[in-house]
Amino acid sequence: MLVQDKMTRVILGGTVVTGRSAQAPLPSHDVWLSGEKIVAIAPSGERSVPAECDVVDARHAIVMPGLIDSHRHLWQTTLRGMCSDMIAPEYRHQLREALVPFFRPQDVYAATLAGALELIDCGITTVLDWVHILNSPEHADASVAALQASGMRAVFAHSAPNDTDAPLWWSNSDRKHPSDVRRLRKKLSDDEALVTMAFAARAPQLVQRVVRVHDWHLARELGLRIATDGGIGGGLWGGRTYPIRLLQQDDLLWPGTVYIHCNNLAPDEYDLIAGTGGHISISPCAEMFVGFGMPATQNALSHGTRPALSTDSVIFVAGDMFGTMRSTLSSLRGMLGYEATLADKGVEPWDITTADILEMATARGAAALGLSDRTGTLEVGKSADIVLLNTRSVRLSPLNNPLSTIVLLATPADVETVLIAGKIVKKNGVLTNFDLNAVIDGVTKSRDWLVAKGGSQLGPAVKRRLADSGFDHL
User: Fold this and answer.
1) DSSP secondary structure string, 424-448?
2) Mean pLDDT on 152-166
3) pLDDT at site 468
4) CA 378 to CA 58: how far, in whole Å?
5) Could you say which DSSP state residue 122 is in?
6) 209-241 exposure pattern, b = at least 16 Cβ within 10 A, e = fewer
7) Is the peptide bond between 167 and the residue preceding it cis, with omega within 30 degrees of 0?
8) Whole-angstrom Cα distance, residue 89 to residue 19?
9) Contacts of residue 134, Cβ cutoff 8 Å, sequence gap at least 6
């Protein structure tokens, strides 16, 4: 702690989990803030509290880094739960092609804001919002405005439209990335801001070779990190496409690129990602639900890459990272146990622990998004993106193992306090600074308008689900 640092807030007496892989939890420690930065982590009582310093009582709390969702489609919040019993092609044909072209800019804003506040409520302080609803410049502006209004640390990942020409953008496409990305890059030119920008490239197998080359080089020209989605190694409904090999053909495997999903890649493709400084973002819950197969966790690890975690979309699954951490670990251990059984042998002691899974949900996410210097761990000099879990509850008491409590026991209901860049955005279990009824009303009215507009085009399975909620006119 430097002499010139003025202490503005202290988080007092908590069990501090820094997220640094080699550091054990620190019982009864204080976290000192000066503005938006962490300036000291010290045993409780070692320093006296200045009179003007705000005090957050954490004596019955785990103090941990904010969780990081490395891949989410916040504009889909309006469509929550509509496709939980569908495989990915059904979702595309029965819902996305029916309703999504009708999204107005105000619908994008309502969904993005509601989704961002959901993240904060669940203890997620940073998100990469992979935005493929950019049907006009106004849609893009609405998305950015909602992220900025939310107070989240967010990476706005600019992708393509989902309009009435969707097949022309998402299937053997000869359309280059929308040129409006240049305008947005000027708008989000400050790479140190709370809301920054990335390039959301369509999956290599979804576009023609000339488009891949153009789009990747456009991202480099604009100085944007690439995050590529669209079923990278996902389900095999169309057979294997070897997307990483497609990129290798034109020397497009660049350091820092985020490859999303990666379930069914060939072994050499995992090696190519690791060898070129790429990152893998997995969405275990969504991937298993929509038919992509088992998550790429073990394949990534065995080929030298520690994946980041993401939730993908609440169209299919819950949007909290606690469930995602549990799905990651349970699917990994379940697969290892299954393989051991097939080999007629017992399971070896676990190599991957709860500490490793927490790292995937924090530090690995920060690394994938290029934010390791700002967030992902609790360290002096980093931004105060901090979550407090209330351990004085029947769910989490007594506190015996802070790491397993976070990864295997905690739920969003246990998130008591959230700080982003030193600012309290959730306190005593309640989000601050927003009329939540107005936010919920906004996204509900948007849903009603979209269903009224495009409901006749919905597939039968979606219609049945909506009928269960009272939309009996479909």
Assistant:
1) EEEETTEE-SS-HHHHHHHHHHHHH
2) 94
3) 85
4) 15
5) T
6) eebbbebbebbeebebbbbbbbbbbbbeeeeeb
7) no
8) 38
9) 140, 143, 158, 159, 160, 161, 178, 180
pLDDT score for 1:
47
C-alpha angle 160-161-165 in degrees, rounded to nearest 5 = 125
| CA 260/CA 283 separation, integer angstroms | 8
Tell me how far apart the alpha carbons of residues 294 and 154 are, in angstroms, rounded to a whole number.
28
Tell the residue number behind the tokens 């996305």, with chain if given. Answer: 96
CA-atom Rg of the chain in angstroms: 22
Give the C-alpha separation, 290 to 86, whole Å. Answer: 6
User: Where residue 123 falls among pLDDT bands split at 50, 70, 90?
Assistant: very high
The DSSP bridge partners found for residue 316 are none
Proportion of the chain above pLDDT 70, given as a percent:
99
- Residues 55-80 have pLDDT tens digits of 999 999 999 999 999 999 999 999 99
Q: Name every residue whose Cβ is closer than 8 Å to that of residue 160 and which is 6 or more positions away in sequence.
A: 132, 134, 169, 170, 175, 177, 178, 200, 202
Q: Say which residue the tokens 């909620």 belong to.
A: 469
| pLDDT confidence band for 135 (50 / 70 / 90) | very high
Long-range contacts, stretch 47-53, CB < 8 angstroms, 24+ apart? 47/1, 49/7, 49/10, 49/12, 50/7, 53/7, 53/8, 53/9, 53/10
Alpha carbons 275 and 217: distance in angstroms, whole number: 20
pLDDT at 4: 53
How far apart are the C-alpha atoms of 131 and 161, rounded to whole Å?
9
CA 417, chain centre distance (Å): 19
Pairwise CA distance, residues 157 & 71, whole Å: 9
Question: Tens digit of pLDDT for each residue in 40-58?
Answer: 999 998 989 998 999 999 9
For the record, the structure tokens of 295 come out as 């998550």
**Terminal-residue alpha carbon distance, the chain:** 63
